[in-house]
Amino acid sequence: MLETELIQLVKKIQLHHAESQIIELKAAAQGCPTRLYDTLSSFSNQDDGGIIVFGVDERRDYEVVGVYDVQDLMKHVVEQCNQMHPKVRAVFTVCRIDDRNVVSAEIPALDIADRPCFYEGRGRYRGSYVRVGDADEPMTEYEVYSYEAFRRKYEDELRAVDRATVADLDSDQLLRYTLALKDGRPNLARMDQQRVLELMSIVKDNHPTLAGMMLFGLYPQAFLPQVSIVATRLPGTTAGEGDVEGARFVDNMRIEGTLSEQLQGTLAFVRRNMRTKTIIDTVSGNRVDHEEYPIEAVRELVLNALIHRDYSIHTQGMPIQVQMFSDRLVITNPGGLYGRLTVDQLGRVQPDTRNPVIATAMELLKQTENRYSGIPTVRRLVAEAGMPEPEFENRRGEFRVTLRLNAQDHADGKESPQSNVHRSDLEPRQRDVLDFCSEPRTRSQIAEHLGIVSTAYAMNRYVYPLVERGLLELGIPDKPASRRQTYRTAE
Length: 491
Hints:
Elements: H1 3-16, E1 23-26, H2 37-44, E2 50-54, E3 56-57, E4 63-64, H3 70-81, E5 84-85, E6 91-97, E7 100-107, E8 118-119, H4 123-126, E9 129-132, E10 135-138, H5 141-151, H6 171-182, H7 186-189, H8 193-199, E11 203-204, E12 207-208, H9 210-216, E13 229-233, E14 251-255, H10 259-273, E15 276-280, E16 287-291, H11 295-308, E17 320-324, E18 328-334, H12 356-364, H13 374-384, E19 391-395, E20 398-404, H14 407-412, H15 428-436, E21 441-442, H16 443-450, H17 455-468, E22 472-474, E23 486-489
Parallel strand pairs: 1-2, 13-17
Antiparallel strand pairs: 2-7, 3-4, 5-8, 6-7, 9-10, 11-12, 13-14, 15-16, 17-18, 18-20, 19-20, 21-23, 22-23
């Protein structure tokens, strides 16, 4: 950093009255701060590194107070840098502001293979920090593990499921897999199935591996109960927000089975819970159905989550979450991005693969192309649907993707009578409700007629969408949440 750049940085800090993700302030007017370890660690462990600015006091309204002694300060900072593992090589800059000396120490980012940087006096697990906003926070055990897993190339998908045997795998699916694998591979074709499964890491020491169980298990959740997908349809825009009857979920489901079964189950859940708007083409007069979310984009995102999630013991108790809010769809995956890949590089560079056995098998089973085209495909489909860009977030210990509806589409979700809704566009149960409500019916009567135990589910799933479309009318329109509310088919 040049002296003029440091002066401009201090002016910017004073203007904003704040530290940041890459800026830490230390007054140092009376001496060198004795504990820089947490900041040295956190800056070294983030991709952009960071800058410690000495001589600006945030407690005195970001006044330039100057450092006590430039040479002694730099000496003591270097001493603390040398107590880090790996050692931190700070780059210093000195400038004069208001006749006072200000010193900056630029802390370079470590390569991911050398992380985490930690204070030797506290050890790897207690001395490793991560920057969160303008604060330094201790790394979790999982965050420390994730760096070590990449550096040492841990293969969590190849961990043997000790309680399981080969008899717990689907023999028909295994045969299909081995035949596909042997096709065009003459050396493999001469081997028996058991040897092939061992070579491909589906079986290890006569036990299925985690990869083998998740690909071909008869019921994987008997051994890995939380390696599943929890899918929810929520009535509002925030978790915990209830509908008029206080129900927090419109639909809630745990989706289990193999990876392929979880994929299909999740797509069925999303299809069941997203609105479909019918529009009449003004030129041809044909009816065109528009789904809230491009289902192929959803498929790619769910598939990515299943293939690239972290299967280590640290995240084995964390299911993938699929949340459908009224304005967005959110998929949250245990484990952040793997290796050197950053959010900005998604779909643009070839990534490190956390679970190569699973990825290769899913390609062989025609579930994925494994050509790193998933994210570009999602971006294209979302753009073609006229939706905002998908949002990708690499959080502490998880990766999140959000597909947002346009503000107009969100408003149109409450489909009005002008939405050109035809009875033939409705689900059979919705048509049944309209027929049943030819005379006023209560909530409990409708639920009983549908054979649904949960009145709240029956209302959220079948009745309220008809009210929003103007196909059902409220008997007490000025008190929609009234316990005496009735519903009648609109004329």
